[in-house]
Amino acid sequence: MLADLQHITKYYKQPGSDILTMVLDDISLQINENERIAIVGPSGSGKSTLLNILGTLDKPTSGKVFLDGLPIEALDDNSLAGIRNSFIGFVFQMHHLLPQLTLLENVLLPLLPQKDKTAQKLAQERAIHLIDRVGLTAHSKKYPSQLSVGECQRTAVVRALINQPRLLLADEPTGSLDAANADQLANLLSELNQEQNVALVIVTHSLELAGKMDKIYQLHEGKLVLA
Ligand SMILES: Nc1ncnc2c1ncn2[C@@H]1O[C@H](COP(=O)(O)OP(=O)(O)O)[C@@H](O)[C@H]1O
Ligand SMILES: [Mg+2]
After folding, report:
1. Per-residue pLDDT for 151 more than 90?
2. Distance from C-alpha of 223 to C-alpha of 191, rounded to nearest angstrom
3. Could you tell me if the CB of 51 is within 6 A of ligand 1?
4. What is the whole-number distance in angstroms between the Cα of residue 82 and the centre of ligand 1?
5. Is 43 in the pocket of ligand 1 (CB under 6 A)?
6. What pTM was computed for the model?
7. pLDDT in tens, 5-54
8. Which ranges constitute the DSSP H helices of 10-116?
9. Could you read off the pLDDT of 69-128 as tens digits, one per residue?
10. What does the mean pLDDT of the chain come to?
11. What is the pLDDT of residue 111?
12. Nearest CA, atom 27, ligand 1
């Protein structure tokens, strides 16, 4: 099993008061190798919170997170950063590319911590292959401001895959795209799931994107139920 969330709860304190609001209410979720999962639900229902807990960007108030069988709470910050880097890829609604770097440089950015020259070389070859795979070779030397939103988002997908993660987490990845680009990205994600052996957990409002996944969960009033 790639990831195992056990009895996750999350409470937030309201700013300026001691009142706690429950966002996630005893959620358990297992994610298997190569599985494709969509999480849908109204705005404010806790989808991003859940995805961030799964991606170790946020901590639950209670409950346990296991990645690749490892209990996350037992790891120090270094090991956690290591796991996050090698095991998980993230795609957000906004591409978060660095404006001062070219497409290729943005894609290569996650490789900076890699000191092994051979591994770096292989990763660079993979970058070039993946950029080609998503149809962006002719744009490699362009800066984000010279790319369309759809091209930027495809670049963000390549960047997320560059370290060969087992788990790709995407938070409304088609949220800022028009219908045609959203469709293209949805197809690309489901193809890459197979080609790259990567499980997908996608938070989305798009029923079309959700429909391409194996399972659709609905988050409602803190509970996660199969739709
Ligand atoms: N850091 C935070 N502090 C306080 N409340 C938060 C924080 N982050 C999110 N929330 C609240 O938790 C709820 C769920 O937020 P979120 O996970 O972003 O929902 P979704 O992604 O489904 O729109 C919202 O009511 C939001 O206001
Ligand atoms: Mg959100």
Report:
1. yes
2. 30
3. no
4. 27
5. yes
6. 0.95
7. 999 999 999 888 889 999 999 999 999 999 999 999 999 999 999 999 99
8. 47-54, 77-87, 103-108
9. 999 999 999 999 989 988 999 999 998 999 999 999 999 998 887 788 998 899 899 999
10. 95
11. 87
12. 44
Here the tokens at position 131 are 């950029």
Beta carbon of 133 within 6 Å of any ligand 1 atom: no
User: Ligand 1 centre from 180 Cα, in Å?
Assistant: 29
Does the CA dihedral 195-58-43-224 come out positive or negative? positive
Ligand 1 atom with least separation from CA of 49: 17
What domains, with CATH codes, occur in the chain? 33-59+76-226 (3.40.50.300)
Neighbours of 183 (CB within 10 A): 15
Sign of the CA dihedral with 109 first, then 114, 115, and 121 last: negative
What whole-number distance in Å separates Cα of residue 23 and Cα of residue 12? 7
Closest to 55 in 3D by CA, of 23, 22, 83: 83
pLDDT of residue 14: 86
Q: Which residues, at least 6 apart from 66, have a Cβ–Cβ distance to it below 8 Å? A: 1, 3, 4, 5, 6, 72
Nearest CA to ligand 1 atom 6: 12
Question: CA separation (Å) from 66 to 4, 6, 179?
Answer: 5, 8, 36
Q: Is the CB of 163 under 6 A from ligand 1?
A: no
H helices of 134-178, where?
Answer: 149-161
